[in-house]
Structure formats: structure tokens, C-alpha cells
Pentraxin family member (Echinops telfairi), 223 residues
Amino acid sequence: MDKLLLWVSVLITLTGAFAQTDLSGKVLVFPRESSRDHVSLITQLDQPLQNFTLCLRAYSDLSRPYSLFSYSTKEKDNELLIFKVRTGVYNLYIGQSEVTFNVLEDFPVPVHICASWESASGIAQFWVNGKPAVKKGLKRGYSVGASPKIILGQEQDSYGGGFKKEQSFVGEIGDLYMWDSVLSKDEIQSTYDGFPTSPSILNWENLNYEINGYVIIEPLVWK
Ligand SMILES: *[C@@H]1O[C@H](CO)[C@@H](O)[C@H](O)[C@H]1NC(C)=O
Ligand SMILES: [Ca+2]
């Protein structure tokens, strides 16, 4: 590689690594169905996770199944996946296993979703609009793998790829936060109210991301 090219690629790498953006009051709009459009969320996660909580807001009028949050590792494509099956039915995958949560939900309305999991007990919790679904359990003693590819807008069937149009997300996503601990009921409530407590893995107010294809940042108008 010639010197100029090398410097340009170093610069792009540095810019990519340190571009932290405050997206508060904004959403990512996925305006069309495709097998390509997506957003990669970049985070330093070099240790496996024993506990986590993930929260986000979403607004979609899709009635088919779709991915809300796709976290894959080199070993497992569904290492951590939130997949909406249909109105009122969500699947949470950990390490390729899944549990189903049934919630009371209208269609189409904006939702605030939180999912948490604790390795020691295997207990998974799912909250929709601040209300808890029945607790489930899976993958007790497991650790969620490190160095993930985290993708919004598409469901990964391989590390950073393997997208299917029929599982893509069309709609708006905002206020995404992820912690390396299980949040309490009060912490879930304050996140739902718009006051998240110090997220450690992903922070919508300080987000490192990369847009691929047709995804637009717009004001949040439905909260
Ligand atoms: C995960 O949660 C368990 C139980 O709450 C706790 O004992 C453990 O220290 C936590 N692990 C990490 C790495 O924070
Ligand atoms: Ca998959």
C-alpha cells in the first residue's frame, strides 16, 4: 500500500473508532424493506458477559416477524437476539437458545423494551412499556460471548452478515442502552421515563455507530 493510502485508512480507522455521537431526542429510521440497510453499533466488549440489560424504543407497523437487536459472535449468530414474532410475542435468544415472552400490546404503537439476563440463575426478564412479562430461564451458567457484531435493522445468520429481507426491521429505533448488569425494577422504570442510569456497554447519548445503506437520523416524534 502506498503511504498516502495507508494514512487515509489509518485516519478512517481512528475516526471510526472515536466518533461518539449524542443521539438523544433522535431515532434511526429504517424507511424501507431490504436485505442490506443496517446500522452497526461499535463497542469495546472484550470480556464475556455474565449479566446484561438491554433497553430500546421502537416504532414499526410491520406485522411480519423481525429482528430488533442482533448480536452475533464468530461462533454463534444468535448469541443475543431480540426477535419480534408477532404483536405481543417476543423471542429472546442467548447462545442460540430461546425463550418466548407474551405481553399485552396494541398494534401499531411505539414500544419501550428492556431485556435482561443473569448467568448465575439463567433468569431472563422482559419489560414492555415498563411492565414485566413472566420471567423465563435459559442458559444457566453460560456467558455471552465477547467481540460481537451488533446490528440494528437486520438479523445476522453469520458474523456481520447473512441478512434476510423477510426478517429486516422497517421503522424507527431510539434510546438504546446496554448495561453489564441486571437492572432493578426502579432502574427499568427510570429508563422508560427517559432517565437511564450510566449504561456501560451501549449509550444512545454517546454512541459509536456506522450506517450502511438507507438509514436516516430523524427527530423522535412519538415519545
Ligand atoms: C453477575 O451477577 C451475579 C448475581 O447478581 C453477581 O454475583 C456477579 O458478580 C455478576 N457478574 C459480574 C461479572 O458482574
Ligand atoms: Ca440468526
About this structure: The mean pLDDT is 94.
